[in-house]
Amino acid sequence: MWLCDLPTSALNDHWPQHTFRVLWDEGHVQKECVLFKGHKDCWNQDSVTEEQVFRCELSFEKSTVLQSELESCKELQALEPENKWCLLTIILLMRALDPLVYEQETLRYFAALKAADPMRCSYLNDLRSKFLIENSVLKMEYADSRVVDLSQKGLTSLCHLEHLLLVTHLNLSDNLLLAFPTTLAMMRCLEVMEADDNQIESLEGLPPLPSLEELSLRNNRIQQASALRTLAVFPALVQLNLQGNPLCQTPGIQSELATLLPNVTTILT
């Protein structure tokens, strides 16, 4: 990832567009992007689907073999419904063949696998989260969207955020998240984030997001204003929703938050 903030003086308001070209000496690679008049950002991004980031391109022969293996595993699983290795193999084969086509079926096998192997439930929840986010990245690319909805997916972890660099609106509501990862720092274009109805207790470690203007954390587990201290260094944040958190029952909390976050003009408790 290469980022560049241009000073206003570098642009000519009379030109309809500016073309930027970045060159790497090694390998003589170059990337080009165009900033149109009236726009504040531009980018060049390699295709996730073309680069086969999440899976390898399969030949017809390999696909045929994997499809045959998948059917064999399903037959075995019908005979041994609680065979956890069989269930995991089915999930991985479906991911290799086509993650989007098999998405709903994969989720059903995950549910069966967690029931058969409760000792590894946390690992399986994170693996399930990883696969769902990969699918969302693929769908986002097909739609060329900068708005990503990851709500109501039962996510326990966040990954692959390096593929969401251009996203401006992110919905993480109604999941099972306990905290935000430090890798969220890569989302420099993020303007609105919803993380309602999770299990978040603190924002400690959350890096400053330079473009974030609105943050909603309704119905989480935040108990003290100090857990929000990191938001004081978010330069663009103007609206914060904390309704439904335990700290809202604290006497004088509105005044305490106003002192802690003087630049946030709207704080809902």
Automatic annotation (TrEMBL):
Residue ranges annotated for the Rab geranylgeranyltransferase alpha subunit insert-domain domain, each copy included: 1-48
GO molecular function: Rab geranylgeranyltransferase activity; zinc ion binding
SUPFAM superfamilies cross-referenced by the UniProt entry: L domain-like, Protein prenylyltransferase, Rab geranylgeranyltransferase alpha-subunit, insert domain
UniProt keyword list: Leucine-rich repeat, Prenyltransferase, Repeat, Transferase
The UniProt record lists the keyword Cytoplasm: no
Keyword Repeat among record annotations: yes
Catalytic activity of the protein: geranylgeranyl diphosphate + L-cysteinyl-[protein] = S-geranylgeranyl-L-cysteinyl-[protein] + diphosphate
Domain of life: Eukaryota
EC number: 2.5.1.60
Main EC class the enzyme belongs to: transferase
GO cellular component terms, A-Z: cytoplasm
Family: Belongs to the protein prenyltransferase subunit alpha family.
Name recorded for this polypeptide: Geranylgeranyl transferase type-2 subunit alpha
